[in-house]
Design brief:
By secondary structure, the chain is an all-alpha fold. Helix content is about 55%, strand content about 0%. It starts with a helix and ends with a strand.
Length: about 290
């Protein structure tokens, strides 16, 4: 293990957040649930929902045995509720294909519905201590700044970026190392207000040495107010409160723009998040 990894691991040991999905003995299923929930969602918002979810569905079998609509309902306001459907489908696949045990290999994890490259690598690394590059936004920012001296990154990791990241992972404790890089990006090497004075890698960081240059291109922030996504969330909020079908007129009051409301409802149905029942009645999937 080189000095870079040692310093990073020492920092992590002293500064890591005590998140429940990182505790010793946590199941691979618990890690998979956390990784799906953490996609585009801060840990502080995820933690209470994860706790409730794991209490209700502590195994893939328990989730697969319930209705998909219950998963959507329990998802609450985490956002991007299709993730709840994907978790439900992944649970069923784990039961059907792997005897109820979350697979440990990257290739097998990739066969699960809704599990992409990042999630498969994260679960393999964090739950099974596999030596795999886990390249989320935080990790890519840390590596880009330290080794390339830049905040410029492509929208998705390149092949060269993956190779370089894998070469940096030590043979000992590769899973802990991977989460340590991620934690450094989340707590210290942040996008807007990096705390370079607290960084264990400052002496190696080309970006810091170069005067912390700004990225040549900035991604525009995503607007939420007034979007179809907000309209969909309002409609789902009404449906989550009821176990019986909801009349269309009750959904009409959830969003004022009739055209946008109809488009949002149509999209929810196409995504499998809502079912039409009889004449102008709707419910979460069963």
């Amino acid at each position: 293990m080189d000095d870079f990894a040692r310093r990073l691991l020492r920092w992590y040991d002293a500064n890591a957040r005590e998140l429940p999905w990182r505790q010793p003995g946590v199941s691979a299923w618990a890690v998979l649930v956390s990784e799906v929930m953490l996609q585009q969602t801060p840990a502080a918002r995820v933690e209470p929902v994860w706790q409730q979810w794991m209490k209700r569905w502590p195994s893939p079998e328990s989730l697969a045995a319930t209705a998909a609509g219950d998963a959507v309902r329990a998802w609450g306001r985490l956002g991007y509720p299709r993730r709840a459907l994907r978790l439900h489908s992944a649970a069923a696949a784990i039961v059907d294909r792997y005897g109820g045990e979350v697979p440990s290999s990257y290739d097998e994890l990739r066969t699960l519905p809704g599990v992409g490259d990042y999630t498969a690598a994260a679960v393999a690394a964090f739950a099974f201590d596999r030596r795999l590059p886990v390249l989320d936004t935080n990790v890519r920012r840390v590596y880009g700044r330290v080794f390339d001296g830049s905040d410029d990154r492509s929208s998705a990791p390149t092949a060269a970026e993956r190779v370089a990241a894998e070469q940096r992972i030590p043979a000992r404790h590769p899973g802990v190392y991977s989460v340590a890089v991620m934690e450094l990006g989340a707590l210290v090497c942040t996008a807007r207000a990096p705390r370079c004075e607290a960084c264990p890698l400052q002496t190696d960081c080309r970006w810091h040495a170069g005067g912390r240059p700004k990225a040549s291109r900035r991604r525009p922030s995503q607007r939420y107010e007034g979007t179809d996504r907000q309209a969909r969330g309002r409609l789902l909020a009404v449906l989550r409160l009821r176990h019986e079908p909801v009349r269309l007129i009750e959904l009409d009051v959830a969003w004022p723009d009739a055209t946008q409301r109809a488009r949002a409802l149509r999209g929810l149905i196409e995504d499998g998040l809502v079912e039409a029942v009889g004449d102008e009645h709707y419910r979460l999937p069963v």
